[in-house]
Design a protein that fits this description.
Layout (H helix, E strand, L loop, with lengths): L2 H5 L8 E2 L2 E2 L39 H4 L9 E12 L5 E12 L2 E8 L7 E12 L2 E11 L3 E14 L2 E8 L5 E2 L2 E2 L3 E8 L6 E14 L2 E14 L4 E9 L5 E11 L2 E9 L10 E11 L6
Antiparallel strand pairs: 1-2, 3-4, 3-18, 4-5, 5-6, 6-7, 7-8, 8-9, 9-12, 10-11, 13-14, 14-15, 15-16, 16-17, 17-18
Length: 296
């Protein structure tokens, strides 16, 4: 992905919130404040390409919104493998991620290998604490490449009404120095509304990202649509990143099967290789154990 795509914040669909199924039509979007300067190629977990921050609730929340780690009583583990396809058709390992969560305390490891630049390893420790109708979370990252630095993310989840879920994340609060530059401070606000029958779940979320650059401001927009059936436990996710002029920056399409134990496949394309040509493939598996009444 382009440097901007890898650093932009992203949303996310998950399908249970304190035991109730979420079908969401979001309200959505806002906020990123980036100090002037070049935008570096920060490690971006693949989960950010297809999950929504207002509804995340398993181990992947460590990377997307740490507040989601304590939204349900659960223990979960995950593994994800990402393969990049070069313009000449060759395949290479681009990223892999491992993680575990137990009742709001998580530990994850990510190895990011962008072509033509230095590889980065990231250890991330996540904490989350619930409160009535919501939760708060922190994620502390240790970046290891040529040098070492630490990052800090803050997340929040809140359910103000029976059918409305809100999520907020501030990323790179400490502005870690990775791959030769400071990562930008960014924030995202998302909202989801439970709107459709239990048998068919529809979720959508959007976000807007602002970067302060020389000569003005640069905006990026993103939307995610999730469709799933409860009975067969099969779902589809479609995400699209838009540039300031409305052109596509990247799209991601994937399917998943299963309930608390699930597997998924996702493919992405960007203008660099042609929007009709998939240049990034990934496979993910998540296994969860949840308290009574909290299954997906």
């Amino acid at each position: 992905p382009s440097p901007a795509a890898r650093c932009a914040p992203t949303p996310l669909p998950s399908f249970a919130d304190n035991g109730r199924k979420i079908s969401a039509l979001p309200l959505a979007a806002f906020l990123a404040l980036v100090p002037a300067g070049a935008l570096g190629q920060g490690p971006r977990a693949r989960s950010l390409d297809y999950l929504m921050l207002a509804t995340v609730d398993d181990v992947r929340a460590t990377w997307v919104n740490p507040a989601g780690l304590a939204r349900v009583l659960e223990a979960s583990v995950m593994a994800e493998l990402v393969v990049d396809r070069a313009l000449d058709g060759t395949l290479r390992l681009g990223q892999y991620t491992l993680g575990m969560n137990s009742r709001g305390l998580s530990l994850s490891y990510l190895r990011d290998r962008i072509p033509d630049t230095v590889s980065v390893s990231v250890w991330r420790l996540g904490f989350s604490m619930p409160f009535p109708r919501g939760s708060l979370g922190l994620a502390i990252s240790q970046y290891r490449s040529v040098g070492e630095d630490e990052g800090l993310d803050f997340g929040a989840r809140f359910t103000p009404l029976a059918k409305v879920d809100l999520g907020f994340v501030a990323r790179n609060i400490s502005r870690p120095f990775v791959r030769g530059t400071r990562l930008p401070l960014s924030g995202v606000l998302g909202a989801a509304w439970t709107a459709v029958p239990e048998m068919v779940q529809i979720a959508a979320e959007a976000e807007a990202v602002e970067r302060r650059v020389l000569g003005g401001q640069d905006w990026r927009y993103r939307g995610v649509l999730h469709l799933a059936t409860r009975g067969s436990r099969v779902g589809m996710v479609l995400a699209a990143d838009l540039n300031q002029d409305g052109s596509f920056g990247r799209w991601t399409l994937g399917v998943h099967i299963g309930g608390t134990d699930r597997a998924g496949m996702f493919g992405s394309a960007s203008p660099a290789g042609g929007l009709g040509r998939i240049d990034r493939l990934s496979a993910v598996g998540v296994a969860s154990r949840r308290g009574p009444g909290m299954a997906r």
